[in-house]
Amino acid sequence: MAAARPAAGSGDVEVFDLTLTPEAPVKRARTEKAEGRGVATPMKQTSLLSMMVRKPAAVAQIDSTTTPSAGSSEMPKSTAEVENASESRRNEAIRETWEPRLGAGWYAALEAELRRPSIESCMKEVALAREKYPHTMFPPDEDVFRAFLVTPLEKVRVVIVGQDPYHGKGQAMGLSFSVPRGVRVPPSLMNMLKEAGNWPCPHGDLTSWSQQGVLLLNSVLTVLEGKPLSHKSIGWERITDAAIRAVSREQKGVVFMLWGREAQAKAKLVDATRHQVLIAGHPSPLSYERHFKGCNHFAKANDILASRGEAPINWALPL
Predict the structure, then answer these.
(1) Contact predicate 277/267, CB 8 Å
(2) Could you confirm whether 164 is annotated as catalytic?
(3) What is the mean pLDDT of residues 207-220?
(4) pTM of the model
């Protein structure tokens, strides 16, 4: 991640409210074949920190005064007009910052939450942590919101909730439980694939599940190498809990798979009169035999989808 430019005479990074940026320089997300992997990956985006480093010209544009320049015949704008114009710029800045990272549907559903000061604070902490640990914070910046881009809100049919990304180098890819091709399949994922009737398997890349409408969402979206749950207190769950509520509110008949105590706590965010909630232990080797093995969640999810005339999820991973 690009380092921020420090303020003159100071070793500190000067940051400001990203919602005030008139033009958030984030490229719109697209997918392209990953070299040698054969799977779709989001295009690299402008880093969060670079969107928050002060740009004096941009700030000056937003903070323009109500008084016209000398010699101008233009009437001074009223306070209400100035406030409306400022709010319009703020709205556009928020949209340009978040929509490329989440997709239009997710952005529309989460917009109110994304305006909260707590989300701004969370993003600042994430950005500054990325600057401090550029090589040991996972997943890569461009993959942090991958789950949202690969599975649009309107396409969600199944939700699998994880805790936080894998904390080993090269493992995390922005989808809960999934690892890139070429990376050894972790034990929890291996147990999931066994339960899905898909083991042995040559890789653990679950992108094909996401593309069929399976939202693979971690509660916490970043982690430091070798330090599980190191970013649990940053505030990510404000966004991910809002995402679960959005699925519950906007969609109908979604199957939620909640494994382990942490995931099961999310059941309160789901309207059980509109959706199906499947509960089991975590697929970790510590609880697999007693609390996960034989739960049949993958088969049950397909039975539920089929009962509504929907195509089942193909849990088999492509070669």
Answers:
(1) yes
(2) yes
(3) 98
(4) 0.79
